[in-house]
Specification:
CATH topology: Protocatechuate 4,5-dioxygenase, Chain B
Number of strands: 11
Bound molecules: 3,4-dihydroxybenzoic acid, fe (iii) ion
Shape: globular
Strand order of the largest sheet: 6-3-8-2-9-1-11-10
CATH class: Alpha Beta
Structural class: alpha/beta
Number of domains: 1
Number of helices: 9
Distance between the termini: 17 Å
Radius of gyration: 17 Å
Length: about 280
């Protein structure tokens, strides 16, 4: 059966794409964030995952405000990069894992998570940048991928409790996949940020750090909060932390922290990185 080696939660700000394209990772503005990656890359070299299941939110690329699935999954052999703007360079396509995608579709619908299946799907910065940062030397064979989108954009959004349960169902399904593949789960976005409105620029370091800590030791802690609570505590785009919650749910009861990093700000966002190993 497949094995989940661990999970990595990381911020997905488009501006990071400019830093990668310009090779600016060691410039003073970027260094405190990019310095978080070498220990995580070293861990990936050790655990050698074959597939990444990437939990993220689409930013108007596949789903706009007129059609918005709460949960959607890609089941394509390849995912091409496009983006909503910000001038970041388009990167090479990402290999899919169609067998794992369909296995997840079957198992998750059986587990009463009625997600939308997408046999064609474009991927935006929320999918591409975390992969670019974790596998900077990526070639066509480096990692196969399965994109899973959660609606963090158009209300109503799934609750933290629901995302944790969805993640747990994803974890169970991966472990029931008849394959010797090693799987890493990613959750992208967050942490606290608000891009528009009266509270534009809002950041809550105290909550972010507590969230990162509790996600490792007591993931059910987040279930005490509603979606409006999370918006109040972390900003209108801070709710992207729901993707971290789903990723954590997939990892089972106990995890060990591999590495963690937190830096304010990258663009408008409190930039976090949290890598966890299953135990
Ligand atoms: C920013 C953050 C995001 O999550 C996003 O999707 C786009 C932009 C930002 O901080 O600039
Ligand atoms: Fe975002």
């Amino acid at each position: 059966m497949a094995k989940i080696v661990g999970g990595i939660n990381v911020t997905h700000v488009p501006y990071l794409g400019r830093a990668i394209a310009g090779n600016l990772q060691q410039e003073p503005y970027w260094k405190p964030f990019f310095d978080g990656f070498p220990p995580v890359q070293a861990w990936l070299d050790k655990v050698k995952p074959d597939v990444a299941v990437v939990v993220y939110n689409d930013h108007g690329l596949n789903f706009f405000l007129d059609k918005m699935p709460t949960f959607a999954i890609g089941a394509a052999p390849e995912y091409h990069n496009a983006d909503e703007g910000w001038g970041i360079p388009t990167v090479a396509p990402f290999a899919g894992d169609v067998d794992l995608s369909w296995h997840l579709v079957d198992q998750l619908i059986e587990a009463e998570f009625d997600l939308t299946t997408c046999q064609e799907m474009l991927v935006d910065h929320a999918f591409t940048l975390p992969i670019e940062m974790l596998w900077p030397e990526r070639g066509p064979k480096t990692i196969r991928t399965v994109p899973i989108c959660q609606n963090t954009v158009q209300f109503p959004l799934p609750s933290p409790k629901r995302c944790l349960a969805f993640g747990r169902a994803i974890g169970k399904a991966i472990e029931a996949w008849d394959s010797d593949a090693r799987v890493v789960v990613l959750g992208t976005g967050g942490l606290s940020h608000q891009l528009d409105g009266k509270r534009a620029g809002f950041i809550n370091k105290k909550f972010d750090l507590e969230f990162m800590d509790k996600l490792v030791t007591d993931p059910d802690w987040i279930s005490q909060y509603s979606v409006p609570d999370i918006v109040e505590l972390t900003g209108t785009q801070g709710v992207e932390l729901l993707n971290w919650v789903t990723c954590r749910g997939a990892l089972g009861d106990k995890v060990r922290t591999v590495h963690t990093n937190y830096h304010i700000p990258i663009s408008n966002t409190a930039a976090g990185l949290l890598a966890m190993e299953t135990v």
